[in-house]
Every structure is written in C-alpha cells, then in structure tokens.
Amino acid sequence: MTSNLLKFFTTxxxxxxxxxxxxxxxxxxxxRSMAMGGAGVAVGGADAAPLFNPALLSVANDKDxxxxxxxxxxIRVADPDKLLDSVDKFQxxxxxxxxxxxxxxxxxxxxxxxxxxxxxxxxxxxxxxDLTAINTQLATxxxxxxTADGGAATVVGIPSxxxxxxxxxxxxxxxGGIFSYSTAxxxxxxxxxxxxxxxxxxxxTCPALPSFASNSLTSGINFRGVLLSEFGFSLSREFHPYNxxxxxxxxxxxxxxxxxxxxxxxxxxxxxxxxxxxxxxxxNIANFDxxxxxxxxxxxxxxxxxxxxxxYKLDFKRATPSGTTPVPTGNTLTLxxxxxxxxxxxxxxxxxxxxxxxxxxxxxxxxxxxxxxxxGGELNAFGWAQIRAGYRVDMVDxxxxxxxxxxxxxxxxxxxxxxxxGNANEIGASFQLGFxx
Length: 437
Description:
Elements: H1 2-17, H2 31-35, H3 49-52, E1 67-78, H4 83-92, H5 95-110, H6 117-141, E2 146-158, E3 164-180, H7 183-201, E4 220-239, E5 246-265, E6 280-295, E7 300-307, E8 312-318, E9 327-335, E10 338-346, E11 350-357, E12 372-381, E13 385-394, E14 402-409, E15 414-423, E16 426-436
Antiparallel strand pairs: 1-2, 1-16, 2-3, 3-4, 4-5, 5-6, 6-7, 7-10, 8-9, 10-11, 11-12, 12-13, 13-14, 14-15, 15-16
Helix pairs in contact: 1-5, 4-6, 5-6, 6-7
C-alpha cells in the first residue's frame, strides 16, 4: 500500500503542477494586455479586437492597414493554498518510508521464535506514532486546489472606419485538481493506530498488524478541465449620429467546448482501467460578442463590450462504471454574458488604460468567481520599443491581485512582445509575434 500511496501523491503532484486552471475569467492571453494588468477593451489595435472588443477595428490607428498575430501563447498557474509545498513536505518527511519500516519491524518482532514483550511494546508505539503522523499529514493535503489556465490565439485584422474585418481562432484550456482525504480512509488509518497502540499496552497478546491494502482506500484527486475553442470573425463600422462618431462591432463565433471531469482514487492510481472517453463531454455552440468604442479628440477613448450574449449551461460527465455512457456528474460549466467597460488615454509616447468587469465571471470548478479591475500603462520609444506595467485587482478575492510587466520590440512593422504577471501564489507569462502594416 505505502509504495502505491507514495506513487499516487507523486503522480498527482506532477500532473497538477503541469496542468492549467479551472476558471473562465474575462481576460485573454494577449501579451500587451497581460503586461498592462489585463486592460484591453479601450486600448489596442485590430489584432486585439476579436479578443477584447470588435469595435476596436474602427478606432485603430489610421496608419494601420493590416494586422496579423502568429500567434499569442500564454500560461498561468495558481497554487493559492500552497499544495505543492505541502506535497514536498509530505515527501521530504519520509512518512511513508517510516511507516513501512516500523510495520515491518513490529511484525518481525511479533513473529520471532522467542517474542520479547518489551521490544514489541516499543516497536508498536513507533507504529502507532507513524500512523498518527501520516493521518495528520494526509489531512493537511486535503481540499487544497491547484489551478492554472493557458491559451493560444491567431488573428488577422483589417481595420477600417467604414468596415473593419478580423478573422480569429482562439483556444483556452482551464483545468485543475483537488485532493480529498475521505473520512473513511482517515477512520481506517485511525483504527490501525488504535490496534498498534493496543499492542504497545499488551504486547504479550499482540497479533501481527493487518496489511493495509490500497484498494480499500476511497480518497482521490478530482481533475476537472475545460477546453474552449473559438472560431469566428469580427465586423465593425463607425457611425455618426448627431455629428458624433461611435464605432460598433460584432463577433459571431462557433465555440467547441470539451469538458473533462475525473475522480482518480488511490485504488486505481495506475489508471489501467481508465480511458479519456469515460470523462469527456463535448458541445458545439454558437454565440456572439457586441462592442462599442469612441475616440475623443484629446487622446481619450472609451469602450464597452458584451461577450457571450447567449447563456449556456453545460454538464460535466463521467462514466460509472468505466466503459459505459458518461452521465452528468452534477457539476456544470456556466457560460453567462460578460460585460466590461474600459477607458484609455494615448499620446505618441505613452498609453494608460483602465478596465472594469461589470459582471462576475463564473468558475468551472475549484476557484471562486472573479471580477477584475485592470490598470496598466505603456511607454513607447519612437514606435520601436515599449515597456509596460500593470496591476489587476480581483474584487471577489484579493489573493488573486497580481502585478505585471512587459516588453515589446516593433522594428519595420513586426512586433515581438513578452509579458509576465505574478504574486506569491500565482505566475503567468505570455509571448506574441505579429506584424502590422
């Protein structure tokens, strides 16, 4: 059992540390936006329009005739309860090895040709202490989620005040895991500790400690994930009611949603009887975004976007038993409309931007809701190099507040951008390669 238990936790830690988060926030992995705290609704050009606000196609720089991203890629990992630190401490404490050795030593003394009660008594006390220690340590790992998210996008944009057009493909993956130490397993280990304690009290009548079979355990890690693949185009046009200029845009899109919900417990940690189809639910849905933007003569711009106008509720599914048709688990992914307002100010050498989520963004699994305020700035050196910084505030959970930095190089119409964002429990990075002409 003990070797399987160690393998289970080690495998779980590796899977979690390399996976992505379970949340569907508003923000994308656009590199400039990440560096500026996540702001993007009222700042950016045609290459960011489908990701943030389709109306940006008609308020972009007049010099820009064509933009392309090939591609934007990013990743973000969050460990708010320091699960990985707890796993490291669990492994470095050698609790499993200590228990294995103490049980072997106890049973060897009990089965000796001439059992020595004082020796049995001392070794039984060690086993009892080791069982209590491992029970306590496993409990410290329970209910600590680790999450992250990642994504990639490519955009081709043709800005115009008369009719701006952009085509895009965007993929976001969000997944995570949480270990649940069941009451049944805690009770089982506690009972073994009680038996070992009894051996230390009456060593002369102590039988060999029963084996601890891993297939009797019910604890496990719940992995849950979402892959959203979006394909579509954006259209935008500038209108002039009452001699005022306003840009309006729309982004029709097809979304393919792939949901994964698996509970892997200790008894099947080798996953020999598990197939991905047991845990997969797939959906193809249509949706659209609406956006508006207005440029002012003094360098200010405002923007408003409504994303995913049509609400959906999608079921996570799991096959019980393995190999049968997956059925709903009771967990759902809710894709509700999202609204965000943005304001920015730009000069030839600087840009500042502020975005505010007007709605809360639903998680798909282990995280809380999110509702962001994003503030960022950019200094531009003659259009050839940029330095950016920002800060994102989560109005729901201040532990998700995050600072960001970024750099950009823009020689001869090409642009290469890098961004990093992080706090004590979260780290993210993004890279983008594109061209503007």
